[in-house]
Amino acid sequence: MQIQQASVKLFITADSSYELAAFTPIFHAWIRDKKISDQLLIDVADYQHVPHGPGIMLIANEAHYGIDSTGGHAGLRYQRRRDEAGDAKASLRDALKRAVSAASMLQQEKSMAGKLKFRTDNLQMRVLSRLRAPNAEATRASLQPIWAQVLSEAGFAGAEFAPEADSRSPFGLTLASCKTAPDLAALQAAL
Asked: What domain range is 185 assigned to?
Protein backbone atom coordinates (compact mmCIF):
# COMPACT_ATOMS: atom_id res chain seq x y z
CA MET A 1 0.00 0.00 0.00
CA GLN A 2 1.19 3.50 -0.82
CA ILE A 3 0.30 6.34 1.53
CA GLN A 4 0.71 10.10 1.83
CA GLN A 5 0.74 12.50 4.76
CA ALA A 6 1.76 10.18 7.59
CA SER A 7 1.51 11.58 11.11
CA VAL A 8 2.83 10.38 14.48
CA LYS A 9 1.97 11.78 17.90
CA LEU A 10 4.01 11.10 21.03
CA PHE A 11 1.96 11.82 24.13
CA ILE A 12 3.30 13.94 26.98
CA THR A 13 3.41 12.26 30.41
CA ALA A 14 0.84 13.32 33.01
CA ASP A 15 3.58 14.47 35.41
CA SER A 16 5.05 16.97 32.91
CA SER A 17 4.72 20.60 33.99
CA TYR A 18 5.12 23.11 31.17
CA GLU A 19 3.42 26.18 29.80
CA LEU A 20 2.20 25.83 26.22
CA ALA A 21 3.38 29.36 25.43
CA ALA A 22 6.97 28.29 26.22
CA PHE A 23 7.11 26.38 22.92
CA THR A 24 6.77 29.55 20.82
CA PRO A 25 10.29 30.88 21.53
CA ILE A 26 11.71 27.36 21.28
CA PHE A 27 10.24 26.84 17.82
CA HIS A 28 11.35 30.34 16.73
CA ALA A 29 14.90 29.45 17.83
CA TRP A 30 14.68 26.21 15.83
CA ILE A 31 13.85 28.28 12.73
CA ARG A 32 16.64 30.79 13.39
CA ASP A 33 19.22 28.09 14.18
CA LYS A 34 18.03 25.69 11.44
CA LYS A 35 17.66 22.92 14.05
CA ILE A 36 16.02 20.61 11.54
CA SER A 37 18.49 21.04 8.71
CA ASP A 38 16.79 18.89 6.08
CA GLN A 39 13.48 20.80 6.20
CA LEU A 40 12.61 24.40 5.43
CA LEU A 41 11.25 25.77 8.71
CA ILE A 42 8.98 28.75 8.01
CA ASP A 43 6.92 30.05 10.94
CA VAL A 44 5.27 29.39 14.28
CA ALA A 45 1.48 29.40 14.63
CA ASP A 46 -0.28 29.88 17.96
CA TYR A 47 -3.61 28.09 18.34
CA GLN A 48 -3.78 28.10 22.15
CA HIS A 49 -7.25 29.63 21.94
CA VAL A 50 -8.66 26.46 20.33
CA PRO A 51 -9.81 23.95 22.98
CA HIS A 52 -8.36 20.48 22.34
CA GLY A 53 -6.73 21.88 19.23
CA PRO A 54 -3.37 22.17 17.51
CA GLY A 55 -1.75 24.31 20.25
CA ILE A 56 1.61 25.69 19.08
CA MET A 57 2.78 24.63 15.62
CA LEU A 58 6.12 24.84 13.87
CA ILE A 59 5.30 25.22 10.20
CA ALA A 60 7.73 23.76 7.69
CA ASN A 61 7.43 23.44 3.94
CA GLU A 62 7.36 19.65 4.14
CA ALA A 63 5.62 19.08 7.47
CA HIS A 64 4.20 20.53 10.67
CA TYR A 65 5.49 19.89 14.16
CA GLY A 66 3.26 20.86 17.04
CA ILE A 67 2.34 20.51 20.65
CA ASP A 68 -1.34 19.73 20.34
CA SER A 69 -4.12 18.48 22.56
CA THR A 70 -6.49 17.01 19.99
CA GLY A 71 -8.55 14.25 21.50
CA GLY A 72 -7.91 15.75 24.95
CA HIS A 73 -4.36 14.35 25.14
CA ALA A 74 -1.34 16.64 24.87
CA GLY A 75 1.58 15.51 22.77
CA LEU A 76 4.05 16.29 20.04
CA ARG A 77 2.62 15.65 16.60
CA TYR A 78 4.70 15.33 13.46
CA GLN A 79 2.50 15.67 10.40
CA ARG A 80 3.84 15.28 6.88
CA ARG A 81 2.30 17.81 4.48
CA ARG A 82 3.92 17.50 1.10
CA ASP A 83 5.00 14.16 -0.19
CA GLU A 84 4.43 11.86 -3.08
CA ALA A 85 2.57 8.63 -2.50
CA GLY A 86 5.11 6.18 -1.21
CA ASP A 87 5.81 2.91 0.51
CA ALA A 88 3.76 2.73 3.72
CA LYS A 89 6.54 1.21 5.82
CA ALA A 90 9.11 3.83 4.79
CA SER A 91 6.61 6.67 5.30
CA LEU A 92 5.55 5.49 8.75
CA ARG A 93 9.12 4.84 9.83
CA ASP A 94 10.17 8.32 8.69
CA ALA A 95 7.25 9.95 10.54
CA LEU A 96 8.14 8.04 13.73
CA LYS A 97 11.81 8.95 13.37
CA ARG A 98 11.04 12.65 12.94
CA ALA A 99 8.57 12.74 15.84
CA VAL A 100 11.06 10.99 18.14
CA SER A 101 13.87 13.31 17.07
CA ALA A 102 11.77 16.44 17.71
CA ALA A 103 10.57 15.10 21.09
CA SER A 104 14.14 14.39 22.09
CA MET A 105 15.25 17.88 21.06
CA LEU A 106 12.39 19.41 23.06
CA GLN A 107 13.29 17.44 26.19
CA GLN A 108 16.87 18.70 25.86
CA GLU A 109 15.85 22.38 25.67
CA LYS A 110 17.15 24.25 28.74
CA SER A 111 13.75 25.82 29.41
CA MET A 112 12.13 22.35 29.43
CA ALA A 113 14.74 20.58 31.60
CA GLY A 114 12.87 18.31 33.98
CA LYS A 115 9.49 19.74 32.95
CA LEU A 116 8.70 17.78 29.81
CA LYS A 117 8.65 14.02 29.25
CA PHE A 118 7.16 11.94 26.49
CA ARG A 119 5.59 8.52 26.73
CA THR A 120 6.71 5.88 24.29
CA ASP A 121 4.30 3.18 25.47
CA ASN A 122 1.33 5.05 24.01
CA LEU A 123 1.52 6.81 20.65
CA GLN A 124 -0.67 7.51 17.69
CA MET A 125 -0.19 7.03 13.98
CA ARG A 126 -2.45 8.61 11.38
CA VAL A 127 -2.57 8.85 7.61
CA LEU A 128 -4.15 12.15 6.68
CA SER A 129 -4.68 11.38 2.99
CA ARG A 130 -8.24 10.03 2.94
CA LEU A 131 -7.86 9.16 -0.72
CA ARG A 132 -4.91 6.82 -0.06
CA ALA A 133 -6.08 5.57 3.33
CA PRO A 134 -9.80 5.92 3.98
CA ASN A 135 -10.88 5.30 7.57
CA ALA A 136 -12.16 1.81 6.87
CA GLU A 137 -11.56 -1.78 7.94
CA ALA A 138 -9.68 -2.57 4.73
CA THR A 139 -7.15 0.17 5.50
CA ARG A 140 -6.71 -1.14 9.05
CA ALA A 141 -6.19 -4.66 7.77
CA SER A 142 -3.53 -3.38 5.38
CA LEU A 143 -1.71 -0.84 7.56
CA GLN A 144 -1.84 -2.36 11.05
CA PRO A 145 0.66 -5.15 10.26
CA ILE A 146 3.00 -2.61 8.62
CA TRP A 147 2.80 -0.26 11.62
CA ALA A 148 3.35 -3.22 13.97
CA GLN A 149 6.45 -4.19 11.98
CA VAL A 150 7.84 -0.63 12.12
CA LEU A 151 7.34 -0.57 15.89
CA SER A 152 8.79 -4.06 16.34
CA GLU A 153 11.92 -3.10 14.40
CA ALA A 154 12.21 0.00 16.62
CA GLY A 155 12.19 -2.13 19.80
CA PHE A 156 8.53 -2.41 20.78
CA ALA A 157 7.21 -5.84 21.76
CA GLY A 158 3.65 -7.09 22.07
CA ALA A 159 1.98 -4.03 20.55
CA GLU A 160 -1.81 -3.82 20.81
CA PHE A 161 -3.67 -1.19 18.82
CA ALA A 162 -6.93 0.72 19.09
CA PRO A 163 -8.41 2.04 15.83
CA GLU A 164 -9.62 5.62 15.42
CA ALA A 165 -13.07 5.61 17.03
CA ASP A 166 -14.58 8.45 14.98
CA SER A 167 -15.22 7.30 11.41
CA ARG A 168 -15.19 10.95 10.27
CA SER A 169 -11.54 11.31 11.33
CA PRO A 170 -8.56 10.35 9.18
CA PHE A 171 -7.41 6.75 9.49
CA GLY A 172 -5.45 6.18 12.66
CA LEU A 173 -4.16 3.61 15.10
CA THR A 174 -3.19 4.25 18.71
CA LEU A 175 -0.68 2.04 20.47
CA ALA A 176 -2.92 1.09 23.37
CA SER A 177 -0.48 -1.19 25.15
CA CYS A 178 2.75 -3.08 24.67
CA LYS A 179 4.89 -5.49 26.67
CA THR A 180 8.03 -3.39 26.22
CA ALA A 181 8.62 0.07 24.82
CA PRO A 182 12.04 1.65 24.28
CA ASP A 183 12.72 5.09 25.74
CA LEU A 184 13.35 8.08 23.46
CA ALA A 185 17.13 7.55 23.37
CA ALA A 186 16.76 3.88 22.41
CA LEU A 187 14.14 4.76 19.82
CA GLN A 188 16.37 7.39 18.26
CA ALA A 189 19.23 4.89 18.04
CA ALA A 190 16.96 2.24 16.48
CA LEU A 191 15.53 4.57 13.84
From this structure: 2-190
